[in-house]
Design goal:
The structure holds two protein chains of two kinds. Chain A is α+β, with helices and mostly antiparallel strands. Chain A contains eight helices and six strands, in the order αααββαβαββαβαα. The radius of gyration of chain A is 28 Å and the shape is extended. Classes of the chains: A alpha+beta, B mainly alpha.
Chain lengths: 252, 284
């Protein structure tokens, strides 16, 4: 730091060697950290982020792991990840099957976040998208078996919006109905009440991170009936389409 | 051979030969107690942890090093974080950045214990790593978020994760702290805090021109017992002030202002002082 303090000023060769050593050492450490970072990005499906959390990639760049959201959660839903938890060290998460989100109206966790990793633009908890409930096992779900459990449907904070019971014919008995719990992604917040309440030993309905649970149509797709509705009920192409008639033997 | 500090103990007595050490432990403990009073006793003076916190439900405090990583990852933070950085940065700008290391950081007692053990056990080690390594690691901690768009060092940072563990839940975080202790004890003396820790490096840059400094104001009394070098976590900072041709102010920002040299010197060479050095005292 102070060349005159030492009798031997560092020679250029020494300086270059020291710098090379520093760069290489830090670089090697960087490779290790890079691998860790890659693993941290693969979000474990059982760990859900608090309401308003930015998409996982941005969340990992904006959360300072201060735990203020954890402190302001009145139901002790949120936890900070430790070294061996399935999400990035120190970041907040909750496990729906243990303690689901109670969807407070004033969203205290979001208000507490100093960085905006939990988006302060979220002012209605019904707009939160922490994950998406999926009836993941139709072989064990009691309703699909033809019984009337209905627990997931009943506990849903958005009753008859996020989960509805869709009627199907019970082909086993021939004269009963199946009441199939059906999740609607435009309403489900991913709070996890359904997963927590599922009466099975292992829940048949589970909340998954949205990117894992949702499919996405090809962007060139047009659904004919929607196009038609948008076009005042008129078809976009002429109703009568002349198609060539092909017969065996090549005769027309 | 007399042990390190026995002169000071004999001449200055128990209190004056450990005053700053005891006050420092009190400060470290006090910070923990403040943070733990909330979760354990329901007294919420301060909420959060050292990474970011809220004092008395109003004043945000944020660690500049961790916030720097967030900024480098390209995130536009809320104003609270920026105010928090400003408050904390101003504090350390005046008192010396590495005051964090010696008076606040929860890892410090661990590495101090390792240094004490190795001194008592006379463990000799041959590994040599430049003390500038921490600045390279600091550069890495800023460059990786720039490239990857995510905070990388906080996945492993033992400093923040130890404090977070004590306040929230430790899980297997003990392993990392144990590893640091063993590294300092058997591999490299003062290895973590004095050579590798990028958080300390960041704070040292922050306190480069700090007001509060240690001064070797009684250096003509020095009789070369070398006790200060033995206890100092950054012994390279002492020599220019103690034996150099210039002033008696320890100007290196690597000095943690821990005051251990003040305690250990039986003839009171060192004392806390302030910058600016007078023109006479300026080191060339």
């Amino acid at each position: 730091m102070n060349p005159s303090a030492s009798n031997k000023p560092t020679s250029r060769r020494q300086f270059l060697a020291d710098s090379a050593r520093g760069v290489c050492g830090a670089g090697a450490l960087g490779v290790g950290l890079g691998i860790l970072a890659g693993q941290a990005r693969s979000h474990a499906p059982e760990a859900l982020r608090p309401p308003g959390a930015l998409p996982e990639e941005s969340f990992l760049g904006s959360c300072v792991r201060c735990g203020l959201c954890v402190r302001d959660c009145p139901f002790d839903t949120l936890k900070l990840a430790t070294l061996t938890d399935p999400v990035a060290n120190g970041t907040p998460f909750f496990t729906a099957r243990d303690v689901p989100c109670e969807m407070c109206d004033d969203i205290p966790c979001v208000a507490a976040c100093p960085t905006g990793a939990l988006d302060h633009g979220l002012d209605n908890i019904d707009d939160a998208r922490m994950g998406l409930a999926v009836l993941i096992d139709r072989e064990t779900c009691l309703n699909v078996l033809g019984l009337r459990c209905d627990v997931c449907y009943r506990v849903c904070p958005l009753l008859d919006e996020a989960i509805t019971l869709e009627l199907e014919r019970n082909t086993r008995t021939g004269h009963h109905a199946l009441f199939i719990p059906t999740v609607h992604s435009d309403a489900c917040t991913g709070c996890g009440k359904c997963e927590q309440a599922c009466v099975l030993d292992v829940a048949a309905i589970k909340v998954l991170p949205r990117p894992l649970a949702k499919g996405e149509l090809g962007h060139h797709y047009r659904l004919g009936w929607e196009e038609k509705a948008a076009n005042n009920g008129e078809s976009l192409i002429p109703e009568q389409l002349k198609l060539p008639v092909r017969r065996p033997g090549g005769e027309q | 051979m007399l042990s390190v500090g026995s002169d000071a103990r004999r001449i200055k007595g128990f209190w004056r030969s450990q005053r700053w050490l005891l006050l420092r432990r009190l400060s470290q403990l006090g910070v923990l107690v403040l943070f733990l009073a909330g979760p354990l006793a329901g007294v919420w003076l301060i909420k959060g942890n050292l990474s970011s916190s809220l004092l008395l439900e109003t004043i945000p405090l944020s660690d500049p090093f961790i916030a720097l990583q967030v900024l480098a990852s390209g995130h536009q933070p809320e104003t609270n974080l920026l105010i928090g950085i400003a408050v904390v940065a101003l504090f350390y700008l005046l008192l010396g950045g590495r005051v964090f290391c010696s008076w606040v950081c929860p890892i410090n007692p661990v590495t101090d214990l390792a240094a004490w053990c190795s001194r008592k056990l006379g463990i000799r080690r041959r590994v040599a790593i430049s003390r500038h390594t921490r600045f390279w690691i600091l550069a890495l901690c800023v460059v990786m978020p720039l490239l990857l768009g995510m905070v990388v060092w906080e996945l492993v940072n033992p400093v923040s994760q130890f404090h977070r563990g004590l306040i929230f839940s430790m899980g297997s975080g003990w392993l990392l702290v144990l590893a640091l202790f063993l590294f300092d004890l058997f591999v490299l003396p003062r290895g973590w805090c004095g050579h590798l820790c990028p958080q300390g490096a960041c704070y040292s840059l922050l306190g480069h021109q700090s007001l509060l400094r240690v001064r070797a104001s009684g250096r003509e009394r020095c009789y070369d017992c070398l006790d200060c070098y033995a206890v100092c976590p950054e012994p390279q900072v002492i020599k220019p002030a103690l034996k150099g041709a210039g002033g008696d102010l320890i100007t290196s920002s690597q000095c943690t202002n821990c005051g251990r040299c003040i305690d250990i010197c039986s003839v009171d060479v060192f004392a806390y002082g302030t910058r600016p050095a007078t023109s006479m005292e300026k080191q060339p």
